[in-house]
Amino acid sequence: MSLKVGIVGCGKIADGHVEEIQKMPEVARVVGVCDREPIMAEQVAMRYGLGYHTHDVERLLAEQKPDVLHITTPPASHLPLAKLAVDAGCHVYVEKPMTLSLADTRELLQYADRAGKKVTVGYTYLFDPPAREMRALIDDGVLGDIVHVESFYGYNLAGAYGSAILGDPNHWVLGLPGQLAHNNIDHLLNKALEFMDADEPRVTAHGFVRRKTRFGDARDAMIDELRLMIDGGGTTVFGTFSSHIRPAGHFARVYGTKSSAHVDYLARTVTLESSGSLPSAIGRLVPAFEMAARFATAGARNVRRFARSEFHFFSGLRFLFSAFYESILAGGPLPISYRDILRVSAMLDDIFAQVKTATRPVSS
Amino acid sequence: MKVVVTGCTGFLGVPTVERLLAHGGADVRCFLRRGSKRARLDEVLAKYPRQKTEITIGDLGSPEAAAKAIDGCDVVYHLAAALTGAPADMFLNTVVTTRHLLDAIAARRSGRPKLVHVSSFGVYGVATVPRGAVVDEATPLEPHPERRDPYSQAKLRQEQLVWEYAAKFDIPTVVLRPGVIYGPAGGAFSTRVGVNLFGLFLHLGRDNLLPITYVDNCAEAIAAAGRAPEAVGQAYNVVDDDLVTASRWLALYKKRVKPIPSVRVPYPALVAVSELVARYHAYSKGQLPAVFTRYKSATTWGGNRFDNAKLKAIGWRPIVATEDGLGRAFEYLGAEARRAS
Fold first, then answer.
1. pTM of the predicted model, to two decimals?
2. Is A148 helix (H, G, I), strand (E, B) or coil?
């Protein structure tokens, strides 16, 4: 059986959704796209050869009867759209952040659950090749017990997304409680989830604005630097969201009792830190070559993946879609637990309650 | 008479404001987004202290701002469009914004302003036109936008929308389709010359004539189209006389700006590579983008020529000769390169 998928919200990320679904025709197919701006729905349909587009989500649901609705709209609309989809008998994939608050996220999950429908959220990096490789190392006991994690998410305000936000004083990102950070730090937080036992991790947050005043409106007040310290219950997490550090990296460092790993989501490498076990000056000489060899091995692994056409930009997205669809079709577990979705929502609430009062400008 | 210029802080926008002021006879409203870099525009406005000009801040992403942009104007010169960005941004910042502008014009009960819309050569469906054939304004628009690049897709949809509104709401409309606009503050290379691949310049344009127009000449064409009553309902190619080949452009760059490694790619080889790239894209399920396809290559590097006779018939003449324009453009590029090194 091939699931019928509808997509509502035809911004940039919708392209990734259509492209990845079109790579798995045996499992799913896009039956229609929707955006309240008709031109945006039309352009996605035109570029991907889709036969149906509309500006009315209720028409999409009624006329195409999708099994799954992917919601890729701004987050303020996620909850009402998800309810509409559930009422129409759809399972729901929601882009991150799932909603604007923990209360809304809980309501969304409960609403779907009561109707017997499944929900997942776009934590795609949890399923990117380096994340899966890191998990295998942990399962094999290579890292030992995890003591601490550093999660780093760099952002380029001059890139396509950043330019769109700074170019539009009415951009929806500026309307989020945590603005730019709110739309991005799901990626920073969700990577730490698997290392934290606490149901309610305790977060300390500091937000900063590092840009110079330029517009004279709400854009100038947008936090662009965020630092987090999380007590996860036995494991601690440092989180960094930065719009100014270069390169704009995206990585996690996982510190274990036996070894520590650097998980790079951009270079798609997982490398163990060198232990430097040899004595004297030799002990300072060898580790650099050990690290070089480990990076060379990781690079060679990526070349093999590329040669097998397994090195796609949206690998994690496709993996998540597959796992979600399989859960729907076979009745298995969801790729992301509701507990984890709620824990991220709770941390977001906590963080933006703190930085609302703690934010201060930092001179460049 | 009052006119408004959208996109007036851009590469083409600033000279367009200047040409309108130079011709006189109209108050000029400059419509720009908050935070736009406007030093070049301010320089131009300062040159015409006796002309009546005004600055209106707004974003065509908002219908209300679009209504404010055209309020009280007799002619709308619409230049604003996205040049880069993701496909969704291109459509949002080129097509949706234009629809807001058109809605604002259509909402005027009487005395709808004339619209002078700046489109692009990219809207033509030239892939199936024989190589070397002359493309004039009667050449059909692109029948397969899905095979084109996002910029061309957005500009095509934008122009289609302009004509749809012109017909439906009786909006007096003129469309200009410039080729490659060049000049100081402009880019070094049009893709029609070639593309940079990891430090090696693939010279794909070879001996094709470049359909270039010096930025002041293009601005003059826009001003001329706004003045000519017979231009309403018509589209015009904007391309200069005495065009140069892509090879000459590359040679000038190497001589006047800096030497770069390049390889000349014959058209049959480009077609073969395009086919391979497209096949690999399909085989690998899109692991690498299909940056080259036969269709795209035929469109950009097929070697069509473009005609400007129709534009000349409404009185336009280049105000800067091509040799002078090239001199100024490469002088700027050379100075920029020296500053960067």
1. 0.94
2. strand
- Residues 59-78, chain B: which have Cβ within 8 Å of A? 59, 61-62
Cβ atoms within 10 Å of A252's Cβ, excluding its own? 25
The CATH code of the domain that includes A9 is 3.40.50.720
Residue A239: phi and psi, rounded to 5, are -120, 135
CA distances, B268 to each of A118, B197, B274 (Å): 53, 19, 10
Contact (Cβ atoms closer than 8 angstroms) between residue B112 and residue B171: yes
b/e map A231-244, b = 16+ CB within 10 Å: ebeebbbebbbbbb
At B106, give phi and psi (nearest 5°): -65, -30
Q: Is the dihedral of CA B1, B2, B7, B8 positive or negative?
A: positive
Instruction: Looking at the structure, tell me whether residues A109 and A152 fall in a common domain.
Output: no
C-alpha to C-alpha distances, A327 to A27, A94, A323, nearest whole angstrom: 12, 16, 6
Supply the pLDDT for residue A362: 56
Q: Chain B residue with minimal CA distance to A214? A: B35
Place of tokens 């520590």: A260
Domains parsed from chain B with CATH numbers: 2-186+210-244+304-324 (3.40.50.720)
A356 pLDDT exceeds 70? yes
pLDDT digits (tens, 9 = 90+) for A149-178: 999 999 999 987 888 888 888 889 999 999
Q: What is the reported pLDDT for A281?
A: 86
Q: Is residue A137 part of a domain?
A: yes
Helices (H), A207-281: none
Q: Do A225 and A264 fall within a single domain? A: yes
A293 in a domain, yes or no? no
Query: Under 8 Å CB-to-CB from A112, ≥6 apart: which residues?
Result: A82, A86, A91, A92, A118, A119
Q: Do B88 and A47 touch (CB under 8 A)?
A: no
Residues of chain B with pLDDT under 50: none
What's the mean pLDDT in A8-19? 97
Quote the number of domains for chain A: 2
Looking at residue B188, its pLDDT comes to: 94
The string of pLDDT tens digits covering residues B146-187 is 999 999 999 999 999 999 999 999 999 999 999 999 999 999
Are both A109 and A139 inside the same structural domain?
Answer: no
The greatest distance separating any two alpha carbons of chain B, rounded to the nearest whole angstrom, comes to 64
| A166 & A100 share domain | no
Q: What is the CATH number of the domain that holds A208?
A: 3.30.360.10
The rounded distance, in Å, linking the Cα atoms of A216 and B62 is: 18
Asked which of A93, A121, A149 is the last residue of a domain, the reply is A121
Contact B153 A167 (CB under 8 A): no
Cβ–Cβ pairs < 8 A, chains A and B: 76
- Residue A209: strand pairing partners: A361
Residues 6+ apart with CB under 8 A from A286: A274, A276, A278
Q: Which residue of B has its CA nearest to A38?
A: B96
Please indicate, yes or no, if residue A300 is contained in any of the structural domains: no
A35 φ, ψ (degrees, to nearest 5): -150, 140
Kindly calculate the radius of gyration of chain B based on its CA atoms and give it in whole angstroms.
20
The answer to whether residues A261 and A186 belong to one domain is: yes
CB contact under 8 A, A47 and B33: no
Q: How confident is the model at residue A218 (pLDDT cuts 50, 70, 90)?
A: confident
Which residues on chain B are in Cβ contact (under 8 Å) with A215?
Answer: 34-35
Range of the domain at A68: 3-121
What is the enclosing helix (H) or strand (E) of A33? strand A28-34
Interface touch A167/B91, C-beta < 8 Å = no
Contact B76, B105 (CB under 8 A): yes
Same domain, A213 and A146: yes
- When pLDDT is averaged across residues A20-31 and rounded to a whole number, the result is 97
Q: Which ipTM score applies to this complex? A: 0.94
**Contact of B141 with B124, CB cutoff 8 Å:** yes
Q: Are A90 and A66 in contact, with CB atoms under 8 Å apart?
A: yes
